[in-house]
Amino acid sequence: MKPSILILILFLSACESKEEQRQPAMAVSKMAIPETAGSNEVSYVSADSYTPPSDKDPEEEKSGELIMKRADIRFQVQNVEANTRNIEKLVSARKGLIARQNLSTATAQVSNDITIRIPSSAFEELLEDLKKEAQFVDYKRLASENVTEEYMDIQTRLKTKKEVRDRYTEILKTKAKTVEDILKAEEHIRVLQEEIEAKEGRLNFLKSRVSMSVINLEIYQKVIYKEAPALVVKPYVA
């Protein structure tokens, strides 16, 4: 393998392994990115001066906070079947959806566990609508999580990884001449692509949870306990 290719691959590998150990704010500023110069030379941009290109203005990316909302509610209703139909209508009117239902019957009550996905803009309104269906509220728990910092950190790391991947791709196309060079470059590209896809998946998850809040609702109806009839076994007659 040519010395220049070996040095470049080792350098990129070292940079990539160290990147995950750094604090979010340092993820970009401390990483040197290779830059091709001429046909057979590789130079590096200053680690302190390099800034990955952005499709959006930095202030636009930072505007607004990303909040994931969740509610866990349990209350008694008059009739589980009828109230479930009412709840379905309320959710539909707020542009939400019923993600899951689990209807069960016990000795003294009938219950339905319902998972609701609702646009975050209608989260509080739907909670008020649901309260009107209750005869008695056992509990109502609200939780929120600010994921703005995590989201911005992943975006930064994702851009950096794409930059490094693109450099490896350029090396593969223009610098790698031997089979060993090609295999090493392809392996680094494969690993980077897997990490990129994982981070993109996490971003998509955060976007989904921020835009659509979750309400875990349990409604129940008390019923009069009835003992199951005894099983009568008739004697066998030949």
Q: Would you mind describing this structure in some detail?
A:
This protein is an alpha+beta fold. It has helices spanning 3-19, 58-62, 80-93, 123-131, 148-174, 179-211, and strands at 34-37, 41-44, 67-76, 97-105, 109-119, 136-146, 212-222. The strands form two sheets. The chain has a five-stranded mixed β-sheet. The longest helix is centred in the last third of the chain and has 33 residues, at 179-211. It is elongated, with a radius of gyration of 29 Å.
> Percent helix among the residues?
40-55%
Report the end-to-end length measured between terminal Cα atoms.
Answer: 92 Å
What's the count of strands? Answer: 7
Identify low-pLDDT runs.
22-63
Give the averaged pLDDT, no decimals: 78
- Helices, by number, come to 6
How does the overall form come out from the CA principal axes?
Answer: elongated
Order of adjacent strands in the largest pleated sheet: 4-5-7-3-6
Strand content: 25-35%
Largest sheet, strands/sense/barrel:
5 strands, mixed
